[in-house]
Amino acid sequence: MTIETQLPAEGNVGGHVFDVDSRTGFMPPKPPIPRLPAMWEDWESMLDLAIAAKLKCGDQVGLTPEDAANSETWRAQARKMPVLPVNSALTSCPILLRRAHLVLTFLLHFYVQTLPIDAPILIPRSISIPVLRVSQQLDIPPLLTFSDTVLYNWEFKSPPITPDAGEEAPALDNLRSQALFSGLVDEEEFYLCSARIELRGVEALELMRQTMDEMFVGDEIAVRRISGYLQTMVGVINELKTLLLDVRKQCDPERYYSLVRPWFRGQDSDLKKRKWVFEGVKEEEDLVEPTELSGPSAGQSSIVHVLDVFLGVDHQSKTPDKPSFMSRMLTYMPRNHRLFLKHLSANPRPLRPFVVSTQDQELLECYNKAVLALKEFRDAHMIIATLYIIGPARRAARALAAKDAEIDSGHEPTPPGKDREPLKGTGGTDLVKFLKDTRNRTGATMIPSST
CA-CA distance, 438 to 292, in Å (whole number)? Predict the structure, then answer.
């Protein structure tokens, strides 16, 4: 079953065209396949080996010579792996392509992040060529994305009682991740937190559809109904905020910062600003050097973008030739989800101008409450970012400064933040500035009351 309600002259709001399901939203209605067919078993086997070897990032504190040797042994095996074909058997099946992208990008990040911190990054042909080809088919960048870690990386803890009924969304407490870098529950909880938000956000999609139906009618009864839908929307967004904050229950900030987050880094978050070189790309006429290489980010979540578009939050860049971070993150979403957002953005009857035009005080108040709820969701995101990234980063900087002072006692330690680059998110942006700007733009969307 899919969201396929027809709007006069506008087409459908969701549905199979956009891969938006009425039960699971932007997540697939059934668990993604757990393994590729035998033809691509070498990829799956290499991923199994990496996970079983408990590989560690090349810059992890306390990395031993044994750890480094363990990683190099695995990388040597990866380099010897044959360049498996990305043929029509793979490219004609979206389900296989998505699994291939997940496996190959996990292999890519295992390879890159286990390298010594000063080593050049040359991604072997066995990984580079297939990941570029698969990514080309999916029209997404050739590295780990939110869709790889969340949307297509889940399965049931236990089989649902009525697996073929097809009438209910997966229970939020009956999910687990298929692939992890660290094997830690902290990493899994980080992914599942986002998965639960995606699933709970499905009700918001239905409220949007109902609202758009009523806006087409536009009479007094429709205005009353829209007010009711927006009141319900406030409750949904508040629940999304609660789910976001619940990540604290099983994800430890220090373990996340030091043992999980480093695996996500893309080229633009590399500590040494190293360029990722994809071996063999110049020899393939139909492949090009990738330019978008930011790691997975919550900014790649379609449900959050949908709420922004629906409520009229403007994240457009003020610099004409430089796209905003939120606009750039669209590139990392599954193609059909991008099409859905484009379709929603092209709606000739946007909600915010409709609310202004009605001059209805109740509707205005309900709309502003929904925008405020979204702002508070972003406030919660800042709390999580401070707890899991900003705080640990500052503590790590203080520890480094103290260590520097011990080594060279003739110099004062560098205070945290001084002469250091701004802290970057996994999406490659200045994290603190981005979060504050996004929250402020959301708050600025509220409509001033005329009374």
Answer: 21
Rg (CA), the chain: 23
Task: Find tokens 């933040």 and name the residue.
Answer: 417
- What residues make up the domain containing 407? 165-272+283-451
User: Which residue, 73, 62, 110, is CA-closest to 258?
Assistant: 62
Structure tokens at 246: 């619940």
Q: How many structural domains does the chain have? A: 1
Residue 427 CA to residue 429 CA, distance in Å, equals 6
Q: What is the pLDDT of residues 350-389, one digit of tens each?
A: 999 999 999 999 999 999 999 999 999 999 999 999 999 9
Residue 437: inside a domain:
yes
Tokens 């990941």 appear where? Answer: 131
Q: Which two tokens stand for residue 186?
A: 């902290």
Any idea what the CATH number is for the domain that residue 226 is in? 1.20.58.480
Whether the model pTM is above 0.85: yes
Provide the 3-class DSSP secondary structure of residue 171.
Answer: coil
Find the range with the poorest average confidence among 22-36, 330-344, 403-417, 418-432.
403-417
- The verdict on residue 341 lying in a domain is yes
CB atoms within 10 A of CB 98: 22
Residue indicated by tokens 């830690």:
184
Dihedral, CA of residue 244, residue 246, residue 252 and residue 256, to nearest 10: -20
Residue 315 labelled as part of a binding site:
no
Residue appearing with tokens 């043929």? 87
* DSSP string computed for 328-374: HHGGGS-HHHHHHHHHHHT-SS-HHHHHHHHT-HHHHHHHHHHHHHH
